[in-house]
Design goal:
Blueprint (H helix, E strand, L loop, with lengths): L5 H6 L3 H25 L2 H8 L3 H8 L2 H29 L5 H18 L2 H15 L4 H7 L1 H14 L5 H20 L1 H7 L13 H16 L3
Helix pairs in contact: 2-3, 2-4, 2-5, 2-7, 3-4, 4-5, 5-6, 6-7, 6-9, 6-10, 6-12, 7-10, 9-10, 10-12
């Protein structure tokens, strides 16, 4: 192997630097999830991370660049989980629309439920991105390639269905998934219960059934 140059050694981030960057991104994730992009400030994020504002700029750039980094950070892992679920299901035999929907929705719900508070914050952050057209390019980079693969799978199972109808049913399902993870408290309130309906109690089974049925309905001729 070639000898590592002095410049390469200097460019390699230290363990402390990586830890600081991770702490800043975790703080940004929580603040952006709670307040949205517009209400969040670099000062807020710095205070949440326990660092100087200059360090936030150093590791994340300006606010928009930091938002981009924060959204993109978990997108690759989430995509890998979804694609692994799809490949495993395909290897098990013929798939249904419900199977495809489950492979897309369940990894997200599972991470929001079991992955710790940062994954739940990320769920809320993705809800902000999905609701605001200004993040069209960010969504196209981080989420659309995987979403497109799943839309292709559904379209292949229903070859006569127009692709816009498949995409519509899929987007409605994504919205339901986000509500399932972030708005359980509303279900509890409207149901007259005393539960907060948080992600710890969320089960993906009913969500998958609801979304699969909705997609099938969207694909029926009207």
């Amino acid at each position: 192997m070639g000898k590592v140059s002095e410049n390469q050694r200097q460019r390699a981030p230290s363990k402390r630097s990586l830890q600081t960057r991770g702490r800043i991104l975790d703080a940004a994730e929580r603040i952006f999830a709670e307040r949205g992009f517009d209400a969040a400030t670099i000062r807020d994020i710095a205070a949440e991370a326990g660092v100087q504002a200059g360090l936030v700029h150093h590791h994340g750039g300006g606010k928009e660049a930091l938002f981009h980094l924060t959204v993109a950070r978990r997108a690759k892992e989430l995509s890998q989980l979804r694609m692994a679920a799809l490949e495993a299901r395909r290897a098990a035999g013929a798939m249904t629309v419900r199977d495809v929907v489950a492979c897309f929705l369940e990894p997200y719900v599972r991470m929001a439920r079991d992955g710790g508070p940062q994954w739940l914050a990320y769920a809320r952050l993705v809800a902000h991105v999905s609701a605001d057209p200004r993040w069209r390019e960010l969504a196209a980079e981080c989420f659309d390639p995987t979403a497109g693969r799943f839309i292709d799978e559904i379209a292949a199972l229903r070859p006569g269905a127009p692709r816009p109808a498949v995409a519509t049913g899929f987007v409605y399902s994504v919205a339901a998934m986000l509500a399932h993870v972030t708005s359980g408290w509303r279900v509890g309130a409207l149901a007259g219960g005393d539960t907060d309906g948080d992600a710890d109690e969320a089960s993906p089974g009913d969500l998958v059934a609801f979304c699969a049925a909705g997609i099938e309905a969207a694909l029926r001729p009207h």
